[in-house]
Specification:
The structure holds 2 protein chains of 2 kinds. By secondary structure, chain A is mostly helical. Chain A is built from 9 helices and no strands. Chain B has a single domain, classed as MetI-like (MetI-like fold), CATH 1.10.3720. By secondary structure, chain B is mainly α. Classes of the chains: A mainly alpha, B mainly alpha.
Chain lengths: ~230, ~230
């Protein structure tokens, strides 16, 4: 086997390191925004709002099956088309060059996250003991207050492991945005690999970096889970 | 001024070529699922019955694999596999069977998820069931066949659905190796018209993936009802 080129690995490491903020932004922003949007969507489903809850179900079924890379390509080519048809009456005014790849990726991943996180929160909200809401109503607490101070915090604690898994899924999923020109960790590794013809070293390096990030996220969520459970006896 | 169109006719004309890509997708998916579930089952048995050290090692390996993005895994297995082949057999990259490399990469990813899936299905079955079976004198094979499998199957069904969808989403990335699966065909057809029909192609890919997802869900739902109490 050929000896690994240490100088190459060092310079690749530095280059990939500089792309970590982009990857983290592509993971954390969709996570937070997706949580907010997802909770709103899942409330629509729980309340069984006539038309909207059906639309949300279809939305979830679509995002669950469709691979992220297809969604990213779809938005990259589709957003200019959509803007052209809606705002310019079908005339080709905007093309891909006018749309920032980073913004398109953030948009797509936020939608993707809101679909999945909505399902996770729906499961968590439904699994909170109904006795809690009964007790709250019997004490005179209104619906909104009950949700905010009794039901939602407990649901959040139940949902944390699933949210952690999904966050790592977002981290891995963000690696496909190199396909539309975003320079994240994966794109950085690919550029270095093709520059030096050292594919194995570059990709193994970035793989290990992704795993380290995944372990860090895991640790963060474990701490969060401990913090949320601090008032409860085991 | 060019007008923005949606060329539905183009999609219909090229549907047969796209479906040829689907056969490659399903082939890679099937091999990856079979190998992945088999290794995952072995891993789960190790996690359930193994020593403390074995459990810790398996847990670490599972967490490690789960942290690697699919595309990185595909690249590492492909380039690493080629280098391994070269040093063992001396053949170069030409004529390599890319499908096998893709299937191996995906089966590694699936085996990590599957080991957790089988482990959680085992632990979700009430211990009392196994105790009752022992007290009735049912041996291990019969316990497995009449008690564990029916109950475990119902529990595991949604996770199996996720596993299958995970395999499908994994195959959507193998076109970067040049494999002519659904995405590979779509990109190829698009290339043939100088990339002017990209949206139409990826739109129909999305619809096809969605359709497959819905079919998988319905089939698993039906299978679950076979095992009702």
């Amino acid at each position: 086997m050929v000896m690994p080129d240490l100088e190459f690995m060092a310079s690749t490491f530095k280059y990939v390191l500089s792309a970590i903020p982009m990857t983290l932004m592509l993971t954390l922003v969709p996570l937070v925004l997706g949580l907010v949007i997802g909770v709103s969507l899942c409330i629509i489903r729980i309340k069984k709002v006539p038309v909207a809850s059906g639309i949300v179900s279809v939305f979830y079924s679509f995002f669950r099956s469709c691979p992220l890379i297809v969604l990213i390509f779809l938005s990259y080519y589709g957003i200019p088309k959509f803007i052209n048809i809606v705002f310019y009456g079908g005339v080709r005014k905007i093309t891909m060059v006018n749309i920032s790849s980073v913004e398109a990726s953030l948009f797509t991943m936020t939608l993707y996250a809101s679909a999945f996180l909505g399902e996770i929160m729906r499961g968590a909200l439904l699994s909170v003991d109904t006795g809690q809401t009964d007790a709250a109503y019997s004490l005179g607490l209104g619906k909104a207050v009950t949700f905010r101070y009794i039901v939602f915090p407990q649901a959040l604690r139940i949902a944390v492991p699933n949210i952690c898994n999904f966050c790592i899924g977002l981290l891995k999923g963000s690696s496909v945005v190199f396909g539309i020109g975003v320079v994240d960790m994966m794109a950085a590794a690919k550029i270095r690999a093709e520059a030096g013809y050292r594919y194995i070293e570059a990709y193994m390096l970035v793989g290990i970096l992704y795993v380290i990030l995944a372990f860090i996220i895991d640790g963060f969520f474990k701490q969060l889970s401990k913090y949320l459970a601090r008032g409860y006896q085991t | 001024m060019m007008t923005e169109t949606f060329d539905a006719e183009f999609i219909i004309r090229n549907l047969d070529k796209l479906f040829m890509g689907l056969t490659v997708t399903f082939r890679v998916m099937l091999i990856a699922l079979l190998i992945g579930w088999f290794i995952g089952l072995l891993g789960a048995i190790g996690k359930i019955y193994g020593s403390k050290k074995l459990k810790a090692a398996l847990d670490f390996v599972t967490d490690f694999i789960r942290g690697i993005p699919t595309i990185v895994l595909i690249f590492v297995v492909y380039f690493g596999g080629l280098a391994l082949r070269k040093s063992l057999f001396g053949i170069s990259a030409a004529g390599a069977n890319k499908e096998i490399f893709a299937a191996i990469a995906l089966s590694i990813e699936i085996s990590a998820q599957a080991s957790e899936m089988f482990k959680s299905a085992y632990w979700s079955i009430d211990r009392g069931q196994i105790d009752a079976a022992k007290s009735l004198g049912l041996g291990a094979p019969n316990t497995f066949k009449y008690i564990l499998i029916p109950q475990g199957f119902r529990v595991i069904l949604p996770n199996m659905g996720n596993s299958i969808l995970m395999a499908m989403q994994g195959t959507s990335l193998v076109f970067v190796l040049g494999l002519m699966d659904l995405m590979g065909r779509a990109t190829q057809i698009d290339m043939g018209v100088s990339y002017s029909k990209s949206f139409e192609m990826y739109f129909v890919c999305a619809l096809i993936y969605w359709l497959v997802g819905v079919v998988v869900d319905v089939l698993l739902h039906r299978a679950g009802r076979l095992f009702r109490w």
